Amino acid sequence: MKKIASFLLIAALIGMAVACGGGGNNTGNTTDGAKPAPQSMVKDVAAYDPKRGEGKFNPENVVLAEKLDEAMATSGEKISGTKCLSCHKLTEERLVGPGWKGVTQRRQPAWLMNFITNPDPMIDKDPEVQAQLELCLVRMPNQNLTDDDARHVVEFMRKNDGVK
Amino acid sequence: MKRTVYFILFAILSFALLLGSCKPKGTATAVSGDGGAKAYVPPGQYDEFYNFVSGGFSGQLAVYGLPSGRLFRVIPVFSVDPEKGWGYSEETKPMLNTSHGFVPWDDLHHPTLSQTNGETDGRWAFGNANNTPRVARIDLKTFKTAEIIELPNSGGNHSSPFLTENTEYVVAGTRFSVPPDNVNGDVPINTYKENFKGHISFIGVDKTTGHMDIAFQIKCPGVNFDLSRAGKGVSHGWFFFSCYNTEQANTLLEVNASQKDKDFIMAVNWKKAEEYVKAGKGTKVPVKYAINRWDEATHTGTSEIKKEVLVLDVKEYPDLVYMMPCPKSPHGCDVNPTGEYIVGSGKLAALIPVFSFDKIQKAIAGKDYDGDYEGIPVLKYESVLHGEVKKPGLGPLHTEFDANGNAYTSFFVSSEIVKWSLKDLQVLDRAPTFYSVGHLCVPGGDTKKPFGKYLIAYNKITKDRYLPTGPELTQSAQLFDISGDKMQMILDFPTIGEPHYAQAAPADLIRNNGQLKIYKIDENKHPHATKAEADAKVVREGNKVHVYMTSIRSHFAPDNIEGVRMGDEVYFHITNLEQDWDVPHGFAVKGAANAELLIMPGETTTLKWVPDRVGIFPMYCTDFCSALHQEMQGYVRVSPAGSNVPLTFSVGTNLPANK
Description:
A: Cytochrome Bc1 Complex, Chain D, domain 2
């Protein structure tokens, strides 16, 4: 008999918990008109392509000429002065971030363009960038470069790597 | 044994029934039981309204979210703010300039949001300075004070900054009448009646830039102007000002300004005033007042002293201004959404008179006067009255409106909000406030299209409502849900300073208005900007040392400076090279007699520093910017006057001689 009583007791308590918890959901937790904040840190690591990175650039829409575009590289150098070179040296030496020497050999052009224009999701997902972050401890800031700015910076990186 | 089981079952069931009421279900119980839930905005979700709440004697404007009551930002306006460098950086100092020189404090009472077609448009907020009379315009894209204009011939700007339905004019009525600026003010105080005048300023606002200047002033007899509201819709073209101390007392106003049974609400035909101005009427009077403007391209404020103002004397223009008798020292004079009714709130009265614009026009046309006040026609009370709300409470102060024909009036003395119907002037509901409510706010409640839904009461006294904090206790705001027939209090929250008055606007209207996230570095036109670390430098010009410095996570350039000497004035011009939202850097240097700087992404800001002794002075970033924020530091070496230590600067290269 005691067993039955205990069983009933437990069953009833579970029932109450469900009833109480469920009732609150509709009336309580959302305020009419309140907007969800944008989710900027969604992680979908599985879909990440470490060769291309993440963003709007891919090998089809970033095509480099064999020869250097001098005008583009000059513009890229100027942009880098304002937005990049406080933290990156043109040698292999790390300052705040890694040195730029050889970066165009290490990375695909599309990856570079994506990382310059869309760094935050890539810092969260790219295994090599994650490893880099453990060294540098500063997340590369989004410096709000336009697509053209980024392309010019890549051209300047190529010049820095000896493309003529 | 069976009995025991039944007993237990019974007990459980009763308990379950009790517990069942622990959360409200359905709308019936929602009205009475879920106040907390209505004000709850879950983590990561946005509020529904912005609430711009005056800081009163703090001089600032606080921005809260509704319905949560969360504080987002305190915008420095009339008072210096060392936290943000406001009034301390070289660029912001001109913003607080006046004809009296630099004034570091004021008392902001009535935030008012700009309107287009009588509706809140989300462009600017205006605020008044109650002490050294001024009006400020705050840009709602940057949440920064963009302009401050001083008001001549004024003694304290309380009746302000209310505005017309297309923000054509922002008004400023002086609370304290004083002798005009261009006459000898060295007169006995008890010659008030003879020598003191009340000036009302109509400040024109440029539609595109928002730039303010005084279009004209109206010179009135000496009284205290308290509050005002523009007509709208049918009454567009008129402005209404509450006046007290029509007794013209100059001492013990508590008694001497409460003698008369009725004071006035003054109706101003500002369209008529515009016509006079266009026709070249009025007198240009020599005065001095400052206009201070912030330039978003140079990140710099400039102050200009103007020397003249156009004045229309009501004595010379008898069809400009009319007085309507209003019981007992009126405070609020609030115009309903259609513009037909003007609600007077005599703060020592026990009824609320509601005036009809239509009847006012008829009384003026028929010269239905009850004598004059210092030459201004006084309209017959009965002729302009729509009706009175009887026995509403004690000490009505201020009224706002919802979209359904209801009015809400605050009562300071009886500490309550009273809801009543404009149609039949019957009281519909009343709710106590805790305690002593001053102004109240309904989102859009002074416009043609109130958003309704909430009402916020701003209370002067909180006594036992919060944990005690010594003799001074916080003042508070109390949020009511007014979507039903009955007002329901759902939250109260403490505020900064004195929450004197506030306005609210839908979140989307403000957050989608083109909010500035960063200053684009290529568009930075500050004369001392440094746009690349390679351009960082230190330049001596006599005893002035200009440091052109950059900041980015997580270093300054230069971060080692030598060759500064005693007697030098050092100007740190710091450009934040970040181009990412929400990454300001700070700057502080030991012994600085002013404050820190907070530099927004892409912005250039200057801190002046006069070293007071020889030695090494650290400088560092104050706004936690990155994992290496604590490494974001540098040193300045100060040598004696006449020292021959050369001026040098560097970042990363000034290494020990012996490694």
